[in-house]
Amino acid sequence: MKYFLGLDNGGTATKAALFDETGKEISSASMDTAMIVPKPGFTERDMNEMWEANCSVIKKAIERSKVNKEDILCVTVCGHGKGLYLWGKDEKPVRNGIISTDNRAWDYPVRWEKEGIVEKAFKLSCQHVLSSQPVSLLAWLKDHEPESIKRTKWIFSCKDYVRFMLTGKAFGERTDYSGANFMNLHTGEYDENLLALFGIKECKNMLPPLCNATDICGYVTKEASISCGLYEGTPVAGGAFDIDACAIGVNVVDENHICMIAGTWSINEYISRQPIEDGSVMMNSYFCLPDYYLIEECSPTSAGNNEWFMKNLLPELREECRKRKTNIYEIMNEWVESIPAKEICPIYLPFLMASNVHPNALGSFVGISNYHTRKHLLRSVYEGVTFSHRYHLEKLMRTNRNQVESIRLAGGAARSRMWTQMFADIMNLPVESVSVNETGALGCAIIGAVATGLYKNLKEAADKMSLVGELIKPDPQNVLIYNKKYQLYKKTIDALDAVWDDFQIIKEV
């Protein structure tokens, strides 16, 4: 039997999972991300700790699998897009890595929009500009930490940094860097004109050589082998942006399925042979399947809200579950199920880290009464997160010319039957998920199986290794209920639109 290791570096957790050639999950291990929040709107991570976390989960996954490390044919990494990881000329991290939920540079895209720069950039990159993209963060660093730019040797995305630590070889993989406003989507290469538009032309030589997802980009070094337990010389594939890995992991290899990822970010996407060039969607980037583009609507408004609720509003339940070694997420799901869909709960706006409506919008519960309990508030969070996905979906559906058969769901919500049903009801579309827990890592394993020649292409590998589960259909009665709630959700967003800039003014006093 042949085995493939997938590493998934998300915004809230670091995960490793081992799969066989049929896509069966043999073992897995995970660690929570040690997030650093030095100021409101700043989210960072110690890059040395990040590498140590990857080493730890790799070791645990191999130990639990009972598989000989020599039998692991390939290692593949995926990671969150956006954010920024700088490697120094002194062969050390320049500073903390910046995670994709960071919003310190919020005013740069706003200013660039007013100056016409975003419109000019879109003609080259086919992307709007987000505050958490590397171009925004590099512009911010140039203005606030110029010494960090001067000390930089390589500009990495999350997973490209991890692959560099495994192999000692610097590459920028196309699915990630095409989603960062670095690349001209018409030529497939870096574009100096883009860097000039954003005022960071001096960063050109800091961008690593480009590679593809299924390229072998190096081999596990002796030093990395000692640190993480992998066999020295194990091939390491190019890997992918985690949203590509998840899409491949749920077998989205045609134009008739929507992929939704309910993780830290609300990711909503489909693949197309042509980019959408009229500016009506947030992002176009290269997909890991050759000749396809990934059409994406996204914001950091998804299941990360559950983590905040759990840590801040359920501390005693969290501690009790830790002591009893029970699953807190199962209890949270039971709480939500105990409140029927027809019950009026507060409207929750899942904008704790940023939003998909206004650059300064904040998380909010609207409509709380003395009748409501934490169970009602938790249901509000589940509903608000799912409504945010629908908000993105409606924009996507206006550009998708194909008949959508179903949504393929990945991320934390896909592990909950109740929440999956909520997605089906709120989107009014059938929803499917796969039978493994770590969808992104499975996508990595599929990429690794192609990189090492076991399968001839990603479509064949996904068909062999991705096992799509039960089709969950919308409940017609709940569809009607949620449609009314969704209209109230949108009205709430509109009603609060005028107040968000005032919050920013107070924050800056």
Total beta strand runs: 23
Tally the helices: what do you get? 19
Within the largest sheet, what's the order of strands?
18-19-17-16-22-23
Q: Specify the structural class.
A: alpha/beta
Structure write-up:
With 509 residues, this protein is α/β, with parallel strands linked by helices. The chain folds into 2 domains: 3-251 and 434-465, Nucleotidyltransferase, domain 5, CATH 3.30.420.40; 304-433 and 475-508, 2-Layer Sandwich (Nucleotidyltransferase, domain 5), CATH 3.30.420.40. It has 19 helices and 23 strands. The protein has a 6-stranded mixed beta sheet, sandwiched between helices. Helix 15 links the parallel strand 22 and strand 23 (431-432). Helix 10 packs across helix 16 (439-451) and helix 16 crosses helix 17. It is globular and about 60 Å long. The relative contact order is 0.13.
Question: What's the quick description here?
Answer:
By secondary structure, the chain is of the alpha/beta class. The chain is built from 19 helices and 23 strands. The strands form eight sheets. The chain has a six-stranded mixed β-sheet, sandwiched between helices. The protein has a five-stranded mixed β-sheet with strand order 3-2-1-5-15, sandwiched between helices.
Label this structure with key terms:
6-stranded mixed β-sheet, 509 residues, Nucleotidyltransferase, domain 5, globular, alpha/beta, 19 helices, 5-stranded mixed β-sheet, 2 domains, 40% helix
Compile the SSE list and pairings:
Elements: E1 3-9, E2 13-20, E3 25-32, E4 44-45, H1 47-65, E5 72-79, E6 85-88, E7 97-98, H2 107-114, H3 117-125, H4 134-144, H5 146-150, E8 152-156, H6 158-167, E9 172-173, H7 174-177, E10 183-184, E11 189-190, H8 192-197, E12 210-211, E13 216-219, H9 222-228, E14 235-237, E15 240-241, H10 242-249, E16 257-262, E17 266-272, E18 283-286, E19 293-299, H11 304-313, H12 315-324, H13 328-337, E20 347-349, E21 364-366, H14 374-397, E22 406-411, H15 417-427, E23 431-432, H16 439-451, H17 458-465, H18 476-496, H19 500-508
Parallel strand pairs: 1-5, 5-15, 9-12, 16-22, 22-23
Antiparallel strand pairs: 1-2, 2-3, 4-7, 6-8, 10-11, 13-14, 16-17, 17-19, 18-19, 20-21
Helix pairs in contact: 10-16, 11-14, 13-14, 14-15, 15-18, 16-17
